[in-house]
Amino acid sequence: MQEYSAHADQVYASAQSAAASSSVVASWRRCMVMHRLAPEDKRLPLRLTGHEFETALGRSERLVAEAASELDRLFLAVGRAGCCLLLTDRDGIALERRGAAGDDKEFRDLGLWIGSVWTEASIGTNGIGTALADERAVAIFRDQHFFCSNINLSCTTAPIRDHRGQLAGALDISSCRDDVNDGTLAILSQTVRDAAIRIELNLFRSAFAGARFVMVPTETASTSALLAVDRNDLVLGATRAARLALKLDDQRIAAGIPASDILREQGAGNEDLLEAERAALLRALSRANGNVSQAAAALGMSRSTLHRKMNRLNLH
CB atoms < 10 A from the CB of 37, how many? Predict the structure, then answer.
């Protein structure tokens, strides 16, 4: 009880200070000022009814499907260490869970279960709610939680974005083990961020099935910066990392922009046409294993015409 009282006093003192000294303190302040919560209260997160949960699950059907394999793989890596995994939608509703049977009671008692709502408004500062509020990956270590009843919990969460770069949900790893320290949490944080990125890429590829995917060079060499490009080299979509790197938005993408232009790979006008013709001829020759007659037939031209084009484009 004394520990709980000391934690509540710290939350009050920090949240009422003139300036937020960290993202955690900023979250504590939101919990008190916006959501009218008190740190000394003991409460569980809000829980949806069966019908409400099925409705939420239906809204995020694609997210759940594309995250399933990553959840399984991630649980194989961290499940034996006493960790629980939650996949939530953008409203903090837990849609999927992975956990060891021996740890189920402890996590259920905390509300780390499907159908629970892990927003800041529901349960104060926590990994999922704060990651969704700040739209960035966070780690909340024990007494950084808002409510006294959660100060034995450590969690790390990464937001998940859809094919348009919009917030779609969050992926969380939580643990109640006493031996979790800053180093352990840092490793789990990187693990959950990597898994969230893979889920984002699954969502992106699924949304643009059949497109060609082009990696965008970035300062951080991010593997998540991708463009989806159609057969005419027009950009169909871009991940959030690619949007930030290339200053793209939905309006520019909908207007139709060649990938080669935005990546500054080629010049404009006649040079583009020559390069496109060169590429078409090379593809035809490759498919025909270098047989000029077969390539010409596939392109609907005579063998002599193809030879003239090859000479003009220096393809011999």
Answer: 22
